[in-house]
Design brief:
This protein is of the alpha/beta class and 217 residues long. The protein contains 8 helices and 5 strands. The chain has one domain: Ribonuclease H-like superfamily/Ribonuclease H (Nucleotidyltransferase, domain 5, 2-Layer Sandwich). Strands 3-2-1-4-5 form a 5-stranded mixed β-sheet, sandwiched between helices.
């Protein structure tokens, strides 16, 4: 059976309910060195932003806002598939991805991520569970190292951007105008889609280079 490597990446955003946010914000304490009320208020607002950013990294308080993937080596030249919450909800995003995996049933599917063992896999699985989406036929809960290649493990750490720059001479092919929270706040869905597609392209190129160099066994 021919092998198909699914190179994928997710982007996440905070999904705090008003009750959750109120609870977390109530625990914020301003810097005790501050005396000026305006500076105290600014410090609290800064920490609220940090709370929301951290919330995006937990499947309990965050949600999937974009998924991008590419199939290697079957599809090398086309732009990666990329979908965002701009015109669909999180549940639909996950279902679209799982259906795309089902379309590859004639292949021996293996996954390629960057930090996916610690983040993308467990986050996506947890959010699927919360939506009662069963992807167990195509998306394993505990993939073996043969089923899942985490390029962060292969390369021993560092960011995807730093490795793209070091090995391929480029980081973001087009620097993002926004960070993820700003894409969401500005409803810049095209920008978010391009962002995740660009990350998948760089990851695919990095995987291809490592594979040709014999770094993957």
């Amino acid at each position: 059976m021919e092998t198909a490597y699914v190179v994928f990446d997710i982007e996440t955003g905070e999904a705090l309910t008003d009750e959750m946010a109120e609870h977390l914000f109530s625990q914020i304490e301003p810097d005790k060195r501050l005396k000026d009320p305006a500076k105290i208020e600014a410090d609290i607002e800064k920490k609220k932003i940090e709370v929301r950013e951290k919330a995006a990294l937990s499947a309990a308080t965050g949600s999937v806002v974009a998924i991008g993937w590419s199939v290697y080596p079957q599809v090398q030249t086309e732009s990666p598939y990329a979908f965002t919450v701009g015109c669909r909800d999180e549940c639909s995003l996950i279902e679209i991805f799982f259906e795309a995996l089902r379309d590859l049933k004639e292949y021996d599917v293996r996954f390629v991520t960057y930090n996916g063992r610690r983040f993308d896999f467990p986050f996506l699985l947890a959010r699927a569970m919360l939506h009662s989406i069963d992807g167990s036929d195509v998306f394993p809960a505990f993939p073996s190292r043969q089923q899942h290649i985490d390029m962060m493990d292969v390369l021993g750490g560092g960011s995807l951007d730093s490795w793209a720059m070091a090995l391929m001479g480029h980081g973001k092919s087009k620097p993002s105008k926004y960070a993820i929270p700003e894409f969401l706040e500005n409803r810049d869905w095209d920008g978010l889609e391009n962002h995740v597609a660009n990350d998948v392209s760089r990851l695919r190129d990095l995987f291809s280079r490592a594979r040709k160099a014999g770094r993957l066994g």
